[in-house]
Amino acid sequence: MKKLIFMLVLAPWFFQAQNNVALFHTTNSGEAKFDKEHPEFTVAPFELLEGMIVVQAQVNGETGSFILDTGSPAMVVDNERNPKENGVAMGVGGQMRIGKTELRDFSFGNIHKKDLEGYVLDISQLEQACGRDLMGLIGYDVLKQYELQFDYSKKIILIYPASEAGRYHASKPVKTIPFALSEHVPVITVRVGGRKAYFGIDSGAAVNLLDTDYLGKLGDSVLSNVNEEWLVGLDNTRQLVVGANVGDCKIKGNCFPSMRYLFTDMSKMEDQLGSRLDGLLGFPFFKGQNIAINYKKRKIYLW
């Protein structure tokens, strides 16, 4: 079985001394809609549950709820549907049991796959966090040939072939951010407190992460509202970590507002990815944006 790395982390919604992560629950469920003039273009509504993007998709003729997770390497289904777990994957908190399966057919909007290789994982922790039965996760292997534009104000995802994406943009992006692909994870360069850092982009992560080394590197002028919080991983491990608001964050010279980060040891994830990774940008980064990820062009667009 190939090396599997899952970046998804949950918000500290329980066991928490003080929760300063912005979370909200909105309802916008429904089927994806196609543009009759451009059938390759899809508008898919989503729900935002505890910072995670939940969409409706279909596996083997059964429709259900899936987390759209750019930090997942591949398609994942709940182990209740296929209980075989004979391998190991790496999460932020450590290792977890995982199995392999083949999905006869999969559909999400204009994305259709036959005989898709998938993985089996216990996602009960995600179901508990969402308060929803979940069929699985939609990851990189499914999304890599497309551009996905997340409009958080309308709670919709626009999906189109990556090579044709530009002609669907209603207006020119305000910012274009190039990224490198480390395994399946988009990695961008960020300056935090004047220091160069590398951040993974993960639509499935409910919180931002930053390596613990930065607690000693960033001064009081950058860090504020520092306290202890619980970090919960996909592998169901809970770690009491330091949380703080971090300011002075710049991407391609553009200043971004102060965001909440949890500080954890990123070295295990670096070892698995084989490249430097100082942090992870999740829901707090995505939530205020109209943002698109184009894997083929390796660019992120902001409006």
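The record above closes out task 2.4. Task 2.5 opens with a second protein, given below.
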Amino acid sequence: SKVWPTQNMKHYETLSYLPP
């Protein structure tokens, strides 16, 4: 759980999303 812009700009909490 890091702070990265996910698909939902409203939530910056990444569940299982990894930035490039």
